Amino acid sequence: xxxxxxxxxxxxxxxxxxxxxxxxxxxxxxxxxxxxxxxxxxxxxxxxxxxxxxxxxxxxxxxxxxxxxxxxxxxxxxxxxxxxxxxxxxxxxxxxxxxxxxxxxxxxxxxxxxxxxxxxxxxxxxxxxxxxxxxxxxxxxxxxxxxxxxxxxxxxxxxxxxxxxxxxxxxxxxxxxxxxxxxxxxxxxxxxxxxxxxxxxxxxxxxxxxxxxxxxxxxxxxxxxxxxxxxxxxxxxxxxxxxxxxxxxxxxxxxxxxxxxxxxxxxxxxxxxxxxxxxxxxxxxxxxxxxxxxxxxxxxxxxxxxxxxxxxxxxxxxxxxxxxxxxxxxxxxxxxxxxxxxxxxxxxxxxxxxxxxxxxxxxxxxxxxxxxxxxxxxxxxxxxxxxxxxxxxxxxxxxxxxx
Length: 403
Fold this sequence. Notes:
Elements: E1 7-10, E2 13-16, H1 20-31, E3 36-39, H2 44-47, E4 55-57, H3 58-66, H4 71-76, E5 78-80, E6 83-87, E7 90-94, H5 96-100, E8 104-106, H6 109-123, E9 127-129, E10 133-138, E11 146-150, E12 157-161, E13 164-167, H7 174-177, E14 185-200, E15 209-212, E16 219-223, E17 229-235, H8 246-256, E18 271-285, E19 288-289, E20 292-294, E21 300-301, H9 309-330, H10 334-337, H11 339-362, H12 369-384, H13 386-397
Helix pairs in contact: 1-6, 1-9, 9-11, 12-13
């Protein structure tokens, strides 16, 4: 070994990325005594406070609970059984809990990540290496892949030889880029609109999620905690948050979320976050290359329109974690062979629903009378047809599966 060669270590699985997908896979592997290493470019403190979505579907929480990963979530999360559409100056409550007997949980992603890191590192003794740099994936199409990186503390170059690599490092990570050109197809869709994402230090103004459908543009209200509320405002693509002073934001929120005389007024508070989200989706097919398996946003991105992203990441992680254990523990490769196809069925279902819901949210602001008319037809049908209501509830809550 030369002076400049990296130090060498052997493990069974290297997981690139410490988000919900990567950490869930890591916890599943540790519970089965599979050796693994999690690599993350950010610090532990950073990922535990990074603001992200917070809606988790009931089947996903059940999957976490069965794996011993939901104790803190079940003790602290808010249980939601309804949402509310506001249009034409009126409010229309959709009680999907009464209709289906099922519900959502609201639990901000930083709290879930904190729980998963604690369980993986502090309880199950997992190996997680934070603040690493220059991660490289090699020999993925062989039986002996490896991952090299630079240690953030020492600056030392290190190499991990392994059996499998889990690429869970998000849309801008190195894992997806490690697939050779032409191997995978990336299907992309741009919605042509953007949302101004806001965090307000103010208690929620409703006991459920609010969707404002207005000619000025969409507005959304989502509880994050008893003291913090997430708001969204539709804005032009490429808009600058500096164009939105606080007084303009609150004025538009009051207009777009108007719900009649019996609706609770919005509680205003300091806005601690303002950023513009360009709404787009992409799907990578297949989600595998040799011994590399993509999970979460590395494989697919769904705009926050239907709050599906974290749920898809957990779905990937459940399937992949179980499949890796089955192969490494007993040589059963069926789960790994079918991993991409099984994941993509749900991915495309959620993408289709996101597109449908986008037209409901944005159709009336397109300044097109035809689109506005069909948007209101969809909304009327939702509240007058039991069949339409049941179909919406199934898609909104996610398909029930046993994890």
